[in-house]
Design goal:
Structural class: alpha+beta
Strand order of the largest sheet: 1-2-4-3
Number of helices: 3
Mean pLDDT: 93
Distance between the termini: 30 Å
Shape: globular
Order of helices and strands: HEEHEEH
Low-confidence stretches: none
Number of strands: 4
Helix content: 40-55%
């Protein structure tokens, strides 16, 4: 997939279809809280494998059971179609509760 920046309208439409994701500091933002550190770390490991496969890497942090993820396409200086695709795949890994 070739990355292309999204227009404001495309981004707004995409966000409507991305449960739990928001826009924060010009990046797609997700915060998840798990039952414990092991579950959080297991989720991070799954996302890391996907990131390597896609060669598209998130900014993230983990504090005990909380994981935050920020997506942006640094090479393009903003949010691209690749970020939306990645966010959708992350959502499929972690069903909405």
């Amino acid at each position: 997939m070739k990355a292309r920046l999204l227009s404001s309208e495309e981004l707004n439409q995409s966000l409507k279809k991305l449960p739990r994701w928001s826009l924060k500091e010009g990046k797609l933002y997700l915060e998840l809280v798990f039952e414990n550190f092991g579950e959080a770390f297991g989720f991070i490991a799954k996302v890391a494998l996907l990131a390597e496969k896609k060669n598209h890497h998130p900014e993230w942090s983990n504090v005990y059971a909380k994981v935050t993820i920020k997506l942006t396409t640094h090479d393009l200086g903003g949010i691209s179609n690749m970020d939306i695709d990645f966010a959708n795949e992350i959502n499929m890994m972690q069903p909405i509760k």
